[in-house]
Amino acid sequence: MKKIFLLFTCCIFISTQLQAQKLDTLSITLENVKYPYPIKYMPINTEGQDIKMAYMDVAPVKAANGKTAILFHGKNFGGYYWGNVIKALTAIGYRVIVPDQIGFGKSSKPFIHYSFHQMAAWNKQLLDTLGVQKAVVLGHSMGGMLATRFALMYPDKTEKLLLENPIGLEDYKTFVPYVTTEQQYKTELKTTAESVRKYYQSSYFTYWKPEYEYLVSVAGGVTLSADYPRWAKVAAMTFTMIYEQPVVYEFQNIKVPTVLFIGKEDKTIVGKGLLSADQQAIHGQYRFLGKQTAAKIPGAKIIEFDACGHIPHIEVPTEFLLALTGSL
């Protein structure tokens, strides 16, 4: 029995090692990551730097309905994970625009002051450049904070605000201990594919499936790049942005039709590792935060998903896409 146990343990170790060996080294602008649709770039000059914003601009596959949707990704992701949502929206006549925010995905990784106000302005610039007068704005996770800021700044540009498990439903700086950007940078430098996988398994999904591994391959692959310190520095800077720039006090000021899509098992907290187990237990509870937030936004609707964590469009895609298209 002992030999069988040792053999089993050895097999797990070898499997893990082979998995690690298969991980491709990725550039920090994800040149070797295939996105679901062709990438274009919008040039930007900011703080004396010439940078570029990557985006997908996907035409409807059925008769165009004259409407546009723009999708804002979360902090640990880029436009690559929106494939099924793009397909569903273009199938019902929408033009779909999917930017990688500056500092993320295939976009530039400059050392600048990161702010949701500036990000919102760049996304408005993108829509203006593409001749889009008004758009449905869907934001996931950090993208939900950005989408909220966009709707507050540009209500006339926002046809509808759709929030998929947005972060920022609490003011993290009121209960998460402060760390400097430099301290967070040192933490980011310790990231590995295995630490990413453990975090995603414990925080993002209720049940881990092999098809989620591609998310780890991207977030883990960049850690092997010689340029990873730049990625880590930007990740720390955007962590500070989230911590210091809450939107939670402004939900009541939203003037556009809003729908929240909430995976009820989500327990995401920005800075969760800085909290005790007791503190973690009373924060990041989306089964309550979703309803509380919907109550703050005038006329908002909420659609909840059982047995679902932080990313409904990946964990319960059929239910999410039905709810999404039904809400349009």
Automatic annotation (TrEMBL):
Origin species: Pedobacter endophyticus
Position of the signal peptide: 1-20
Protein known as: Alpha/beta hydrolase
Residue spans crossing the bilayer: none
InterPro entries from the UniProt entry: AB_hydrolase_1, AB_hydrolase_fold, AB_hydrolase_sf, Epox_hydrolase-like
Biological-process GO terms, alphabetical: acylglycerol catabolic process
Keyword terms, alphabetized: Hydrolase, Signal
Domain AB hydrolase-1: 70-315
Record's GO cellular component terms: membrane
GO molecular function, one term: monoacylglycerol lipase activity
Keyword flag Transmembrane helix: no
